[in-house]
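G., the chain you wanted modeled:
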Amino acid sequence: MLLRSGRRTLRNMPVKRKCLMRNVKTASRKSVFCLRETLKCYILTEDSKTVHFDIDEDGHYEISTKDSQSHEDIAWLSVFTRNEPAATDSKNLVILTQRSKLNEFVLLCKGKKQLCLKVLKASCSEPDFPFVERPCVKACSHEAPDFKQLSEDNLFFIMHYQGDSVQFQCYEDKSYYLYVNDDSLDIRKPENKEPNEDKNFYFRVSYLQEK
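Predicted structure as tokens:
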């Protein structure tokens, strides 16, 4: 199987009618999210640097951008919708994960005042919360995170389209956006309420297609 880099727009992609997951609840238990699909991609800055994040064996965070691009920089972009009667598909709720050097899935999320990382088990692993029912799995390829571990709003971003670029707005606190800070990433409040003029609030997604 070869991976080919290509650009796709979620607005033009078919949405599977049957939810892949039905009961992902936040800690407040007020919202339920439904997974639409998970896509492999590279997350790029506007000046074509590659976003990379990882946790080493000592628990140290690495959230950076770099000029090169390799297999370890592949991200899993998972798109959710709110499974509520009043919800619409106008907002794409996403989570961003990458595979760590320790062969674990690492999730990028909003901390109290800065970005932080969380380790997710593979989809065939036992969930962290025993009350969540897990479907029978005959075989495991370790190719996807176990989303049943999601329990907090700060794990989600709202992905907004701005032409060929995207912005990642924090779902828990919508005043914060993902931001490129020199050779690393950060979360920041736009000075003019709308981050439309600062390119450091913009990203590009290069999807990987199986061929």
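DSSP finds no helices and 14 strands in the chain.

Shout if anything looks off.
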